[in-house]
Amino acid sequence: MKSSFLFGLLTTVATFATANDDGIQPYSIYAYGINATFIPYGARVTSLYVHDKNNTPRDVVLGYDDPAQYVKDTATNHTYFGSVVGRYANRIRNGTFTIGDTEYHVPTNEHGGQNTLHGGSQGYDDRNWTLTAHNTSSITFSLMDPSGYQGFPGAVLTHVTYTVSSPPRLTTRIVSVSLDSYTPIMLSTHIYWNLGAFQSPTILNDTLHLPFADRIIDIDSILDPTGALSSVRLPWQSPSLPLNFTEPKQIHEGALYSQQCGDGCTGIDNAFILDRPPYSSTEDASAPALQWTSADSGITMTLKTNQQSLQLYSCGGQNGTIPVKASQGSGYVEKYGCLVIEPQQWIDGINHPEWGQNDRQVFGPDSPPQVLWASYDFTTN
């Protein structure tokens, strides 16, 4: 077996490493009942306003009032607030994978070097994307990721388009093309949501429904997949049972009782498999994969996606040190104060050929593009 350590292209690092003034320039889009703001640094969402049950506009995503703070965050907390993550979202065990007869090693950046998280030490969240299109209701950012950067083979070109429409909907579409080599591609968005806009310090009393999420990907103490897949339904004594959201229930019924989220954790930090035929319908006709209703604002978010998994994280690592935005009050982000929803394919699937997910994990110049779409509809009750 050949071994390839592709850590070259050092001359390009400075281009990616620091967000300049263009990288933190905010851009807004809007439609009736919804408006959103973005910055090129990480192609990230920095605010999203929709109306609550009292017709009051609420900013339902976490972030910072000062766009420059996102750069500081990457160097300290590294929350990935609102960003696109890649080239390979989530974790790669030991930062190692094999394509053909070549073993690749990418930088490890979590758990003392035991795995790679969200593409390595400088993933897509820490790059200045290029603004390539912008009108009143849509914005597109593009990124050319050169071969060898962060150890990944092959050059990859990615376009991410955010669109808002009425009735209130945010649509994300990410299209990635491998230009010259076979390479892992699995992107996602990393938006932290609080549909109550912090009227309460946690989301534990909100209601969550995952109608297709019959199974989860089992993980070990450092959140790497073991290869096993577990039902969230049976048996009754199964530790997976708190994660059964196939019928609507309050988030605290899962988050306060599940310990399948890594060593010493109580909460949700899991990849839920969406057990349904892949790509079975068009975007408008697709059945909702997730529905979430805020107990405070009455806002319901309904998510549709073409991805085969949802990684959910109930913000168990937040500890009251990051302030909420001024529009959300004067408090801080507490434990269970938010929910991260990452539409994506099966995590670390490149290291689990037994899952049969290779065609959704590895792409070459003769492959179709890797396409992620997700729509978020907002209503009130």
UniProtKB/TrEMBL annotation:
Q: Which SUPFAM superfamilies match?
A: Galactose mutarotase-like (SSF74650)
Q: Name one Pfam family in it.
A: Aldose_epim
Q: Which domain of life is it from?
A: Eukaryota
Instruction: Tell me where the signal peptide lies.
Output: 1-19
Question: Which chain positions lie within coiled-coil regions?
Answer: none
Q: What is this protein called?
A: Aldose 1-epimerase
The entry sums up its family as follows:
Belongs to the aldose epimerase family.
Q: What's a Gene Ontology MF term here?
A: aldose 1-epimerase activity
Keyword Transmembrane assigned to the entry: answer is no
Q: Which UniProt keywords apply?
A: Carbohydrate metabolism, Isomerase, Signal
Q: Which Gene3D superfamilies match?
A: 2.70.98.10
Name the Gene Ontology biological process terms. galactose catabolic process via UDP-galactose, Leloir pathway; glucose metabolic process
